[in-house]
Amino acid sequence: MVTEPVSIEQCVYFTNRTIGNGKVTAWVYKQKCQKCGKSLMSKPKDTKGKIKIRAKEYICESCGYTIPEDEYEESLNVEIIYECPHCGNKGEAVVPFKRKKVQILDEETGKKSSVEVLRFQCSKCNNNIDITKKMKGV
User: Fold this and answer.
1) Coil, helix or strand for 47?
2) 3-class SS at 41?
């Protein structure tokens, strides 16, 4: 059973998308610090208090413990509520927050390109449902 977040502040990742004839809402909760367990791990902030979104590490605000971005994100799970674009089934899924590179065909240019996706299967028809990483300029 997945629980929807109350605030985006609780999440490392959140998306709400339409995929074909289906819909997907997915999120990844921030985890508590592995060292002290007091506060949530988050990206570091600059002197003005703005979050450094391109930082390559997560930091605990209580004890200052840092962990590399890749290592931290691989330990998380993404929670998904979806309506399958293939069969229309409504369901929920929890999968590891690990993006895979997949070849897709660009319908405008006719060329194949590699994109990063979060992939999970529909619980009814077992077809793959991909949540693509948002691309700049697309």
Assistant:
1) coil
2) strand
pTM for this structure? 0.82
Residues 35, 127: Cα–Cα separation, whole Å? 39
**Reduced to 3 states, what is the DSSP secondary structure of residue 39?**
coil
Question: What is the per-residue DSSP string for 73-122?
Answer: HHT-EEEEEEE-TTT--EEEEEEES--EEEEEE-TTT--EEEEEEEEEE-
C-alpha to C-alpha distance for 118 and 97, rounded to whole angstroms: 7
What is the b/e burial string over 21-47, where b = at least 16 CB atoms within 10 angstroms of the residue's CB?
ebebbbbbbbbebeeeeeebbbbeeee
Q: Which pairing describes strands 112-121 and 128-132: parallel, antiparallel, or unpaired?
A: antiparallel
pLDDT in tens, 5-33: 888 888 988 999 888 888 999 999 999 98
